[in-house]
Amino acid sequence: MTQVYVIHGYTASPEENWFPWILKKAEQEKVGLKVLRLDPSTTPRLEVWEQQVDEQIEEINENSIFIAHSLGCIATLHFLSKKLHQQKIKQLVLVAGFNGRLGRLDEVNPFIDAAEINFELLKEQIQHRTVIYSQGDDRVLPKFSLEQAQSLEATVISAQHQGHFIDSEGCTELPEVWQAIQPYLSFR
Q: Coiled-coil intervals in this record (predicted)?
């Protein structure tokens, strides 16, 4: 059976943005989905997030799906670069992701700089890779998400929502994420 893990972004929580919606959707469809809870500090540290992700993920297998948003994409790529040497997973969906510094929010630069991402390994070990971005995202400009998609040789989806996929910009549902994972959900 598929287990989906959702890794939120900077200063977020499982109760914000589109995370309650996707959790409810998964419950309705009887899909195992867990939104991880990470330190919401304005000066996050990668080693803290890495430990918290490690503590909340029970098992990774060939049916696992990871979904990440914004800074959570960096944390997820770093985590999977360490965990997938001997293990393949089904899918990775990155929402408003990026690979390096954004030229804003200097307080997250140490977090970004500490990440070790092995794109070659990730391309080999993740069966399906998808990047979702918004033309109207002024926090993570589209070019950064498109660069990430290129690094992962990922399928690219331009979302209907025109922003950074956060509730303060009106994003409380993100159907593109559900549509991206739906073909890869297995129920046994």
A: none
